Amino acid sequence: MIMIIIGSIALLCIVPMIHIFALSFSGNRALMSGEVFLWPVDWNLNSYKEIFSDMAMIRSLMLTVILVTVYTGIALAMTTIAAYALSRRDFKGKNIMFGMIIITMFFNPGIIPNYLLMKELHLLDSLASLILPIAINAFLLIIMKTSFSQIPTELEDSAWMDGCNHFRFLIQIVLPLQVPILVTIALYSAVDRWNMFQDALFYINNIDLYPLQLKLYQLVINSQVNDATAQEGFNSSTPIPQGLQSASIVFATLPIILVYPWVQKYFISGRLVGAVKG
């Protein structure tokens, strides 16, 4: 019974994506007549050809790949350093600092204060505004801190007797033992940054710095506006074809989907390690 429920839920998640794939490979006639459901009708690659001929879309993809790579590296490094410090037994005041970090999970200053802060720091229209404010995720920090706390004290004491300092202990002993949790944190960070567009919507005005998800958001919004104005009888720009919209969604989603199978084994074990407190 449980397998049937899980299978039904998985099917509900997969069917919409299959439908989008089918739309992206179908012809305009079939799309306009509503013939497409789970299999392409009038199979063609016209929508994808149009996307790959759009240099703005390709530029956004390259920019997003760079942004995600840099952000993931910075987030992983800062989370690791913070988690290691908070997991130390001799770190005075760590409970107070840890409590302050937890508070940030429940209380957020909001959009306007964040925007004003970015403006005062002169970070608007820069990739730094898409990296620094979210460099450390409190939830991921808690997972990593919990994992680091499970390292046996005997191993730590032995390292100190051999002359290790904190940096050497972290690099040579802690991190090799925490590969699953590191990959999990990296995957979470990369997926979060890849799917995020709201901060770019507020902080980025330069069209050359638009990440891929913001381009996709504008494509969908512009299509909805064009449809609404057409229904009201107003003049509007040429509606964006449904096939092109679907192909854009696939174009923006497929890269991160292809990454997941390579890190799945680390992802599962990392979540288990970080979720159990020793």
From TrEMBL:
Domain of life: Bacteria
Keyword Phosphoprotein listed: no
Cellular component per GO, a single term: plasma membrane
Domain ABC transmembrane type-1 positions: 61-263
Protein keywords: Cell membrane, Membrane, Transmembrane, Transmembrane helix, Transport
CDD domains named among the record's database cross-references: TM_PBP2
Entry's localization field: Cell membrane
Topology of this chain in the membrane: Multi-pass membrane protein
Signal peptide: none
SUPFAM superfamilies assigned to the protein according to its UniProt record, in alphabetical order: MetI-like (SSF161098)
Protein name (database record): ABC transporter permease
Organism of derivation: Paenibacillus crassostreae
